[in-house]
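Possible regression after last week's pipeline update?

I re-ran a chain I had predicted before the update to compare outputs. Posting the input and the new output here so someone can diff against the archived version. Not blocking, just want to make sure nothing changed silently.
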Amino acid sequence: MVDPPPKLYKAYKMYNYRRKQGISVVWFVILFTMLVFVASNAINIDKFTKWFVDHTQLDIVGLVAFGVASYFLWLAVFSLVSHKYILKLLSYFVIVASGLSTYFIDKYDVAVDRSMLLNIAYTNQSESLTLLTWNMAPYVLFLILLPIYIVYKTPITYDRFLKHILKISLLFVVSFGITLAIIYTNFNSIHKSANKSKKYILYQQTPSNFIGAGINIARHYINKNYKTKPKPMNLKGNITSNDDLVVVLAVGEASREKSFSLYGYTRETNPLLSQIDDLHLLHGIAKYGSTIWALPQILSRDDIKLSSITDKLGVASSCFVNLGLYGNCGTVPEIKATDCPQGKCYDEDLLPLLQNDLATYKSGKKFVVLHFGDGSHGPIYQKRYPKSFQKFKPLCRDADIINNCTKEELYNSFDNTILYVDFVVSSAIDMLDKSGVPYVFIYLPDHGESLLEEGRIFHGMPPGIDLPPEQAQVPIIVKSSVPISVSKKESYKQQDVYDTVLDLLSIDTKILKKEKVFIKIVR
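New output (post-update):
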């Protein structure tokens, strides 16, 4: 057997040695961060380029500067956690989170921020599973499983502690310095595009989006639970009238105004409400497109819950919920619908709770919150109503609406939710009428819903971004058995409901802003 040439044999031994030794931690961090950043954002590059266009001219220098600065900032951040005992575990987490973020941004054009992560945490399991489709398979394979395998099979070499700290510190300083230099030299382009998108480019850039969101969640949690809390407000107030009145505030979910035939929609989606006399149809304006942010706009102010005030001042108060109000009933317990004869709890299953509550009323003031939590929430709209309300067909039966449903199927499925809202709300009003109690009933959703207007779908705009009309414009429907006057305005803010309820219940307190009240009892 002929021996190999000495030089070739020596080179082979050196290659085999280095393969077993692996790559240095510095090179691993550089290559890993680059792989994640490029793979995730290249798929969604169109989400960024549109914000760097001025009068049909693409600002290529600004776009490239934004991308490069973002990468080096990500590199600087990840270098800080490159410890030998946690580096690969964190790498696996980043790969999974980046792959999922990329998929949902690509398919649903969502913004990944603190409110989005909290919504995921509060969403029940069955609802979350509807978002998992076979269209995810390529993303899972190429953006999650393959990178995890590569990282798993890659050996990493680490220096001694002091040398490791020195190298990593140098990598951080250089990376962060490059970031600052690029931002400084291209500030006008980046700042203009960030303002134009109202920071939307940051919420869709992976992995900085979910990292920033996670940091915000941790910061808010620490502030809430570990920082010195201010003393609870010594809320004082009194009830200035002994008149009998029941105020029912019904909060819906994602039911937009433009799909109500009561407000001019061409399809008949409100056959029952349209038969009720003396309805006040008001144009509401939602501030936030995410339930977890929108509900406090209606039910809370300065962290003082509306029902906590009524409860403290002696008004009999109840909260009946389908799904949940995330603590926005304060000191009043949330009572969930549990007696659901159709196997699944629908919004109509709150009505027996309301009926039983009304039966206990004798006199004085009473406040009831109803949360119709199914409402018009996607992605599979027909899960929000019984089969008997599948009037408009064919239906969209897939969570991947963009790829697997026609516009007709999408609108049919959504319009059926409004048809069901019509039934539930009209039934609540009918129940109040039959009970004989003196009442004021107010219905409004937390926000609206996008149905592919300019490519938008569902809801969930983060705070700080103005809602598009279809998400901002919500119906406010008022019915009363007692004489009332309604202020004439072009539109009514959700926040004003808080003051209006307090005034209807004759509650006088410092937190009440009387100029915001838009419904008055005529005495």
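Follow-up from reviewer: compared with the archived run. The radius of gyration is 28 Å. Marking as no regression found.
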